[in-house]
Amino acid sequence: MFLAGSSDRWTWSMDVERSVDFCVYALRRDGLRVAPFDQHPEGDGSLRANGLDAESWQAWLTSVLDAHGRLKAISSAGDLSQVERQQIKEAFDAFSAPAGLCPGSSELRAQLEALWVEYEPTGLRWEDSLTGGPTGRVSRFLTRPARQIWKGLLPYHERLATLQVYLVDYPAPAVLTVPPLTCVIAPATADRDGFAGQVVSAAEMLAAS
Question: Is this model's pTM higher than 0.70 or not?
């Protein structure tokens, strides 16, 4: 996104991806708390029993985000060669099966694969609620704050090549930065200005990292 009518073509973007949201869903089901996603109740602990901890969860999330980044980068190319098409397929297959990107035991990945099957209907409903045209929550987030967000990001144009925002479903507002250019946000849904502040706060943290 860039500001209409401005010669400054610095952009930021916002994505709704089930594979990213699934990483947070796994925390909620298990009960593992990793700041800032540490406001959910205790879960069944089954993923922790198979070795999932804060460090491996963060590595898993980073791998999922990297897979999506590779997919976007390859897909944005012009005339795709056969090699690039194969790379897109491999990146898409990896991103569409996030359990396989988790470090740790085969037992942990198998458990996550089963959890992914359970999650998908919930994830689809969540995705639809956010992206369903002008009535979707993403549109409502940006009806008024889009210009406010872009202006709030002005101080970071020189320090950040871009800003990539991924939205996730979580019972409390949260902002997690993944340097150099990515953040994961559970939106402050009750207050559109609050969401704008979250995006700007993420840029500030990334610029300082």
Answer: yes
What pLDDT is recorded for position 1?
53
Structure tokens at 27: 């925390």
Q: What is the pLDDT of residues 5-54, one digit of tens each?
A: 556 678 899 999 999 999 999 999 999 999 999 999 999 999 999 999 99
What is the C-alpha separation between 117 and 119, in angstroms, rounded?
A: 5
